[in-house]
Amino acid sequence: MRPTSPSILVLASSLLLAACGTADAADEADVRAERGLPLWGATADKSVARCGGGEYVRGIDVSKWQGAIDWTKVADAGIAYAFIRTSYGLTGVDPYFDANWAAARDAGVLRGTYHYFNPAYSGADQARNMLAQFDDAGDLGELPLVVDVEESSGAPSPATYASRVLDFVDTIEAETGRRPMIYTGGYFWDTYVGSAALADLPVWVAHYFNDRTTAHCPNTPNAWAAWTFWQYSEMGVVSGVSGGVDSNVFDGSYEQLLALTFRRATVVSQSFPARDEAPLLLRQGECQELSLTVQNTGGVAWDGDVQLALSGPRDGALPAVASPAWPSTTRVAGVDANVALGAEHTFRFELCGNALGVHTVDLALVHTGVTWFSDAGQGGPADDALRFDVEVVPAAALPDAGPPTEPGPDAGVVLGGSDAGVTSGPGDAGVFGGPGPARGHMDCSVATVGGAGAAAPPALVCALALLLLLGGTRARSRGRRLVLSRSSRLAAPE
Predict the structure, then answer these.
(1) Residue (of 123, 201, 133, 203) closest to 163 by Cα position
(2) 8 A C-beta contact, residue 220 and residue 251
(3) Residue of 128, 178, 206, 480 with fewest CB within 10 Å of its CB?
């Protein structure tokens, strides 16, 4: 069942519009568009004809006018993608949308959707009408959502038309996090809308030549330097579709088309610090396994080409903490099985303390050979969203994480005799200062451990005492996370 709240908003908006003297939603008619010169203009009258690169990927767009479609036959005919109409105007719904949406997905056809825009109504309310048609808000398709701008009946001034289209686009982006695409014609946009405010969005242009082929260069709105999709015919013949169907090409390769598909990962949990937390501590020579669990909240399933990569800079090596277990010097982990929409995946990876000092690690997701999740049009996370510091310290500076031993009657550490200034007794909750020498002066010539009289190496005692003394000061400002792996490759100091 679809949510009712958008419908309530749409109804309220409809009543308001009627009261203000604008068109009544009850007057909306689902009229089949008659495309021609009013959309793209006479070639001789249009100076902005944009040629594609010559490598195209075929697709179609459909609505109720095509009736029932056999999507398996469509896929077998080599159709890679389809734009499927969801809705029109303020309240109009395409009755074939649900069936087409599910069947196209099952056939493996990449899906986008479009809404036929009516300039007489609020753009924001029309966007909500479009979004209300999705039974699953987590499945908005692989390709961009589209606003179909070609209606001239009742068109307001270009400034008002542009404002309403912009409201539609802003609402879609605010509600979904996804950047829509504009469908229009070169002549129509320049005449009725005339705005460059949306030229950062991809554009899908319509222009039919007499031979209905792609051996031409379509007219394109002045504001766009290039088109992304071109609808070159309304009379295409495709197996599985009855009668003529709108035929399109994408300007580029199939791999470039995949870069338009929407990818987003939402962080569920991580075992390493957040960017504003204290550094992760590693002993020099130690390797520690970490993990990042994310949910696929984008529009396409992930395969083995989706990887967790170093991103500061992108694909820049970081030998100071690199592990020989990484897939490469710049990729720390990969997907080992397909991750469906809405599913979670845990990346497990190692960091190794190869070089002393503090090192900043940036991680991001990438679909290798296609796009980074942080690229424009994708959903992130951003390249620096998974940033944290790793501090590699000398091996002797951190205590070993071996199993605890039974304390003796004088359990704890006594430095420099009974008045060394740092003592931990068996009944004490932590470390407290005694009456020994002030901070900054320490006698390391004598050390006994556990009261048993066993001599400890002076260098180790000094390092441990320094860590304990400084720890109280640093803990007051922020916590430190000690990484002491029982599976460490570093042997405990002798």
Answers:
(1) 123
(2) no
(3) 480
Give the pairing of strands 280-283 and 386-393. Answer: parallel
100 and 112 Cβ atoms separated by less than 8 Å: no
Residue 254 lies in a domain: yes
Residues 234 and 278 in one domain: no
Instruction: Flag whether 488 is in a domain.
Output: no
Strands 344-352 and 287-296: antiparallel
Q: Which amino acid is at 168?
A: F
DSSP state of 211: T
Is 98 one of the annotated active-site residues of the chain? no
Query: Which listed residue (142, 148, 150, 151) is catalytic?
Result: 150
CATH number for the domain spanning 214: value is 3.20.20.80
Q: Catalytic: which of 61, 142, 286, 350?
A: 61
Q: What does the block give as tokens for 357?
A: 């000092």
Q: How far apart are CA 156 and CA 179, in angstroms?
A: 25
**Claim to verify: residue 61 and residue 141 sit in the same structural domain:** yes
DSSP helix, strand, coil percent of the chain (3-state; round to 5) = 20, 25, 50
pTM value is 0.68
* CATH number for the domain that contains residue 318: 2.60.40.10
Q: How far is CA 109 from the centre of its chain?
A: 22
On whether both 248 and 356 belong to a single domain, the answer is no
Residue 123 sits in the same domain as residue 252:
yes
Distances in Å between the Cα of 119 and the Cα atoms of 124, 125, 177, 224 are 11, 12, 24, 21
Cβ contact 152:185 at 8 Å: no
Q: Which of 234, 258, 282 is the last residue before a domain boundary?
A: 258
| Domain residue limits at 425 | 413-482
Say whether both 161 and 251 belong to one domain.
Answer: yes
Residue 405 counted as domain residue: no
Give exposure, 177-207, as e/b (b: 16+ Cβ within 10 Å).
ebbbbbbbbbbbbbebbebeebeebbbbbbb
**Is 150 a known active-site residue?**
yes
What is the spatial distance between Cα 36 and Cα 185, in angstroms, rounded to a whole number?
A: 9
In a domain, 164, yes or no: yes
Total domain count, the chain: 3
Give the total residue count for the chain: 494
Same domain, 217 and 352: no
* 229 Rama class: left (phi>0) / alpha (psi -120 to 50) / beta: beta
Q: Does residue 82 sit in the same domain as residue 167?
A: yes
pLDDT digits over 457-474, tens only?
544 444 454 454 445 444
pLDDT beneath 50, residues of the chain: 1-26, 44, 404-456, 458-463, 465-466, 468-470, 472-494
Reported as a single tens digit per residue, the pLDDT across 253-304 is 999 999 889 999 999 999 999 988 999 999 999 999 999 999 998 888 899 9
